[in-house]
Design a protein that fits this description.
Blueprint: E1 2-5, E2 17-20, E3 46-49, E4 52-55, E5 64-67, H1 74-77, H2 88-95, E6 101-107, H3 108-112, H4 122-137, E7 141-148, H5 168-179, E8 185-188, H6 198-203, E9 206-209, E10 215-218, H7 222-230, E11 238-241, H8 243-246, E12 264-271, H9 279-290, E13 295-301, H10 308-319, E14 323-326, H11 354-369
Parallel strand pairs: 5-6, 5-14, 6-7, 7-8, 8-11, 11-12, 12-13, 13-14
Antiparallel strand pairs: 1-2, 3-4, 9-10
Helix pairs in contact: 5-7
Length: 371
């Protein structure tokens, strides 16, 4: 079977990675023994307070940063977890952009060590823990995102419409158990739901994926994922993306899950080709939410690495107290191509693309104004 690893399953496809998985690969599920070890507490802390996020000192804090793509796909067929460097030097380059947060997409199969992935289980988990520690050592908050998931013996090598009931609750129980003592970490429960209803989003349903062979599977709703995290005693903030690849948040409040810890955050993704890609739509749908619950734009960007869309969105978000993280801190000299979608950097020393210049300079201006 050949699976093309791209950023967005059925819409604009952005990364150029081809995976060849032998048809004879045994994909039978095995019993997963999950580590009971947890990450030691960070000095940083982030939590929901009203319609804001606040830090360990109770100061209102917006998350302004970048997405570091790679750990959602590289592990499937290679002997590594990250696409590009993940050491302190690479994080130092990020910090030079005046960011305070990094979103790290994860792969369900690699974390659990199932379905024949090359780098999975304890090896994958330990590398993610190490990277979180490295990011936090530079004073950065970390968002862990369930980016790729798949039901049964299907390999999590693309973006399915919604989290699966087979593995996703187990994934979040394990991740939450690992990071529940680390209050600088937020959990983004599922990257970009699409092709489902709001009722399915909340409670789960039968969904379909694939072409020409269509697979029908039972999804896990957001309530089930919230419950999975909270069953461990973890109180970390939880980000929940809406429909249409997290670009439609119109039904978020009506279908908001119950959270005993009251730590839910709206996850909004915003690109110049989405269904809600104009100031009028943001003001009608996102701004009212931001008045009652924190809103984090977990991804935003412009195709072909342009900057006009981003230069319009960032000031709007600043005005409305909305957080935002640019997709993606992946270098064009490392295989990413601006003709396919947003890449912030030309190299891992942090040299920006045109799109990256817009984010870097805007964050520098914000940092200067807060001095």
């Amino acid at each position: 079977m050949q699976v093309v690893l791209r950023r967005h399953g059925e819409r604009t496809l952005w990364a150029a990675w081809t995976v060849r998985i032998a048809a004879a690969m045994a994909l039978s599920l095995s019993v997963i023994t999950l580590s009971s070890s947890t990450v030691s507490a960070s000095a940083l802390s982030i939590k929901v307070w009203g319609n804001h996020l606040v830090n360990q000192d109770g100061v209102t804090t917006r998350l302004l940063g970048i997405d570091r793509s790679g750990a959602e796909y590289e592990c499937v067929t290679t002997n590594q977890v990250f696409d590009g460097p993940s050491n302190a030097a690479s994080v130092r380059a990020m910090v030079s952009w005046h960011i305070n947060a990094v979103r790290v997409p994860l792969n369900e199969d690699c974390w659990l060590g199932i379905n024949g992935v090359v780098t999975g289980g304890a090896t994958y988990r330990n590398q993610i823990v190490r990277y979180v520690h490295t990011l936090e050592s530079f004073g950065l908050y970390v968002i862990l995102d369930l980016h790729w998931a798949a039901p049964g013996t299907n390999v999590a090598a693309s973006q399915w419409p919604m989290a699966d009931a087979d593995h996703s609750p187990t994934f979040w129980t394990s991740v939450a158990e690992t990071f529940k003592s680390d209050h600088a970490v937020l959990f983004d429960l599922f990257n970009e739901p699409y092709g489902i209803s709001w009722s399915c989003w909340l409670n789960g349903c039968q969904a379909s994926y694939g072409s020409p062979t269509v697979i029908t599977y039972q999804t896990a709703g957001m309530q089930q994922l919230v419950d999975a995290v909270r069953s461990t005693g973890a109180t970390n903030p939880l980000m929940l993306g809406g429909l249409e690849y997290a670009n439609d948040v119109s039904g978020w409040r009506q279908y908001e899950p119950q959270d005993p810890d009251h730590q839910l955050v709206v996850s909004f993704h915003n690109y110049n080709f989405g269904v809600c890609d104009s100031p009028a739509c943001w003001s009608a749908n996102v701004a009212p939410l931001a008045q009652v619950v924190p809103v984090v734009t977990g991804e935003f960007g412009e195709d072909k690495c342009g900057d006009s869309f981003d230069l319009a969105f960032m000031p709007w978000a600043d005005q409305h107290g909305v957080s935002y993280l640019g997709w993606a801190w992946n270098a064009t000299d490392g295989g990413w191509d601006c003709s396919g979608g947003p890449a912030l950097i030309e190299d891992y020393l942090g040299k920006p693309t045109t799109y990256g210049v817009a984010l870097k300079e805007h964050l520098a201006q914000l940092a200067k104004s807060s001095e």
